[in-house]
Design a protein that fits this description.
This protein has four helices and eight strands, in the order βββαααβββββα. α1 packs antiparallel against α2 (about 50-60), α1 packs across α3 (about 65-85) and α2 packs across α3. The protein has helices at about 35-45, 50-60, 65-85, 130-135; strands at about 10, 20, 30-35, 85-90, 95, 100-105, 110, 130. It folds into two domains: about 30-95, Arc Repressor Mutant, subunit A (Orthogonal Bundle); about 95-135. It has about 140 residues and is an alpha/beta fold. The strands form three sheets. Strands 2-4-3 form a three-stranded mixed β-sheet. The protein has a three-stranded antiparallel β-sheet with strand order 7-6-8. Helices cover about 35% and strands about 15% of the residues.
């Protein structure tokens, strides 16, 4: 019986839901789905320039697991780039380092929020959701 899969720790939620291709005509809805943990691996390794050992510690996983996640993410991004397919970021076995919130009115994400405030710190809206509950699997 295989071991239960550990959730991956994510520090910051993605700022986008995906990316669309520009300049490809007549394509069908043929998206590539990038898991949030794959996005986080690319963010830590390529954007922040961490080593695989450092990134694995940040995500609370082993280095070989990080390598597998990163290789799958690179493959999906390359497929999207070469074949002209949109990238959609969603899903995965994750949890956030801190409790993150999102305002449905202005789309702002923030982690400094008191349940007593009930208002978005950016626009003042009361339409706030918890991303920890939204992304939990």
């Amino acid at each position: 019986m295989p071991r239960r899969k550990r959730n991956r720790r994510i520090q910051v939620p993605p700022v986008i839901k995906g990316m669309s291709v520009f300049g490809v005509r007549g394509r069908k809805s043929n998206e590539v789905y990038l898991l949030i943990e794959e996005y986080e691996a690319i963010r830590l390794l390529d954007y922040q320039g961490l080593t695989q050992e450092e990134a694995a510690v940040h995500m609370d996983i082993s280095r070989p697991t990080l390598t597998r996640i990163y290789e799958e993410a690179r493959n999906k991004v390359a497929t999207s780039f070469v074949e002209g397919r949109d990238i959609i970021i969603r899903g995965g076995d994750i949890y956030f380092d801190k409790n993150w919130f999102k305002c449905n009115s202005c789309q702002a994400s923030f982690n400094h929020y008191s349940e007593n405030d009930h208002d978005c710190p950016v626009c003042g809206s009361k339409d706030i959701i918890s991303l920890n509950e939204h992304y939990s699997s």
